[in-house]
Amino acid sequence: MIIRQAVSGDLPAILDIYNDAILNTTAVYDYQPHTLAMRETWFNTKVEQRMPVLVAEDSGMIQGFASYGPFRAWAAYQYTVENAIYVHPAHRGKGIAKALMQPLIEAARKQQLHTMVAGIDASNAASIALHRQFGFEEVACFKEVGYKFNRWLDLVFLQLML
């Protein structure tokens, strides 16, 4: 498996992974699948903002992707980013998210960012454990801020000082 910067040709695979997360998990608090045009806009924005989009590729197949983006829109938040890591459902539990995390953190440090946050559904024990392995600490838990799959969802925020 190699970890590399995504290219526009990776977007259909990235879209499939992301849409699976929307439709089948609480990793994304959204209801409707995204379109390829939406992913293209997202990708182009990442490129313009100099934000990485990393992919994990094995035998020509994209098995996961990771990125970060602005935490909030106001100027004083410019040194804080929020990360996102998604893995294809057939490849979860194989260390792909772990392989993506370190290069993502390194990219943030190289850009001289100050802190990285992660908003994770409180029921996602695997993602919370992954982030803790890399030194993220829980800083907040927002009760019942999302509603999906006929239930209220709690959102945990973790933070890593870079």
Structural description of this entry:
A seven-stranded mixed sheet has the order 1-2-3-4-5-7-6, with helices on both faces. The chain has helices spanning 11-24, 36-48, 96-110, 125-133, and strands at 2-5, 53-58, 61-70, 80-87, 115-121, 137-148, 151-161. 31% of the residues lie in helices and 36% in strands. The model has no long low-confidence stretch (mean pLDDT 97). With 162 residues, it is an alpha+beta fold. It has one domain (2-161): Aminopeptidase. InterPro entries: Acyl_CoA_acyltransferase, GNAT_dom. Pfam families: Acetyltransf_1.
- Read across the widest sheet, the strand sequence of neighbours is 1-2-3-4-5-7-6
Helix content: 25-40%
Largest sheet: 7 strands, mixed
Q: What's the total count of β strands? A: 7
Q: So what's the CATH class?
A: Alpha Beta
Number of helices: 4
Gyration radius, rounded: 15 Å
How much strand?
35-45%
Question: Based on the structure given, which CATH architecture is correct?
Answer: 3-Layer(aba) Sandwich
Average residue pLDDT? 97
Helix and strand content put the structural class at: alpha+beta
Low-confidence parts, pLDDT < 50 over ≥5 residues?
Answer: none
Count of all domains: 1
By CATH, the topology is Aminopeptidase
End-to-end separation: 26 Å
Find the CATH superfamily.
Gcn5-related N-acetyltransferase (GNAT)
